[in-house]
Amino acid sequence: MVTEEENNKHKRASTSSVLKLEKFFSELCKDEIFAVLDVYPEEKTVVIDYNSLEVFDPDLADLLLEKPDDTLEAAAKSISNIDPQRKNAKLNVRFSNIRNHVPLRNLRSEYIGKFIAVDGIVRKTDEIHPRIMTAVFECRSCMRIHEVEQKTNIIHEPAVCTECGGRSFKLIQEESRYMDTQTVKLQEPLENLSGGDQPRQINIVLEDDLVDTLTPGDKIRVTGILKTLRDERTKRFNNYIYGNYFEPLEQEFEEL
Ligand SMILES: [Zn+2]
After folding, report:
1. Distance 116 CA to ligand 1 centre (A)
2. Domains in the chain, ordered, with CATH?
3. Three-state secondary structure string covering 197-218
């Protein structure tokens, strides 16, 4: 249970993050951000150097590592707020050079929900699937249209029709809005292994413009949020990384 007090504290925290991030973006990355906003939605990604955020506001930089979901949401909101054209843009804010660098085999439960950077070799890339972002429903009684933002793969319907009180809805697929998503498997660099160890692997979930940009054999450093998902069959939780940014690594890993 989240108490109301905690809830308010949380709200205040994110409001202050939005204000601080507005200041950061306006003072340090304005030209770059406005250039993307100018051509939005054809382009919708800005890459921010974590080091510049850390110099600007160390507490805010810490908050990004500790509460990345909230802070990334605040970052997107603050960019929308400083947009002179008021396009209501939802940019992907991606961070390079974060200092929370963790070896893949050390990604234990203490890191769940944290912003981390991991090195590895791409082993497998899955097919690209759509993920529903905004589901459009029609009330079966009065035909009123309802839009519901979706955060997970389980589709949430409206609780009740605000027009007629009806509780039965039809999903209208062709009116709903989607985002591409792809899972890739990342394996730890072999030079980190001592004799006889099996290389560890972890799934990386990529979305939007990160999709279809990696091929097996690519050596990368990926930034993302460590998340966990319960496997209904085995009843176990499996960790994965929700990717925010990746860059190719210069150094050569030993191939399998
Ligand atoms: Zn209705």
Report:
1. 45
2. 4-96 (3.30.1640.10), 104-128+180-248 (2.40.50.140), 131-179 (2.20.28.10)
3. CCCCEEEEEEEHHHCCCCCCCC
